[in-house]
Inverse folding.
């Protein structure tokens, strides 16, 4: 376990990689939010670390105390199912204009496009972290049969809502941005919600389940 101040108002805790690291991060984050919510602005977590943004009004003495208290939180035993996951269903139109790389992924896997769709929708994917772009969820659990390499040459622009595969990960482009993932479908569900709090539809520790729909059904 390693911790340090990234800035005057942001403290970082980083854990060693282990089988339960992500669960520990979720538990630490939930405890800090619950017990110290009046003293922090927000927490931002990844698969192995958590950043705690502290309110500017906190005194210098308290700033010295908080990291030690939070390190004690990090030492607590992991409680099974300590954080209840929110499972969000995402309707996706696969292939065609919405998923121009579906056939590429299918050919790489030695499968039909329909088999790729069936495998991709067969899993409830844990959200490992939000990153790369605002609201972009990195998801684990992609069936190994449909792992696919990134594109050799990234696209200059990928529409918001595009569902992609890169290596053993899958995710959803939350905003229009350049990117090199293999795009197999698209959703009309907005993942980045700048006028809401929190501004992301899903958070680390939630889960996503993709549902295949026909064009037009995603608006139903």
């Amino acid at each position: 376990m390693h911790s340090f101040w990234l800035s005057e108002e942001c403290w970082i805790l980083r854990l060693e990689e282990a089988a339960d690291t992500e669960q520990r991060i979720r538990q630490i984050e939930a405890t800090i939010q619950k017990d110290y919510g009046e003293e922090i602005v927000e927490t931002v977590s990844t698969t192995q670390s958590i950043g705690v943004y502290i309110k500017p009004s906190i005194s210098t003495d308290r700033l010295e105390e908080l990291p030690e208290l939070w390190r004690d939180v990090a030492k607590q035993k992991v409680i099974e199912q300590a954080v209840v996951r929110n499972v969000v269903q995402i309707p996706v139109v696969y292939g065609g204009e919405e998923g121009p790389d579906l056939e590429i992924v299918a050919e790489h896997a030695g499968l039909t496009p329909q088999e790729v769709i069936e495998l991709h929708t067969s899993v409830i994917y844990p959200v490992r972290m939000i990153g790369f772009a605002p609201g972009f969820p990195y998801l684990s659990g992609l069936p190994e049969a449909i792992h696919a390499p990134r594109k050799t040459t990234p696209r200059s622009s990928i529409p918001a809502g595009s569902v992609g595969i890169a290596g053993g990960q899958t995710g959803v482009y939350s905003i229009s941005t350049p990117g090199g993932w293999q795009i197999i479908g698209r959703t009309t569900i907005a993942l980045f919600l700048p006028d809401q709090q929190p501004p992301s539809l899903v958070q680390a520790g939630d889960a996503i389940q993709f549902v295949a729909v026909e064009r037009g059904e995603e608006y139903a």
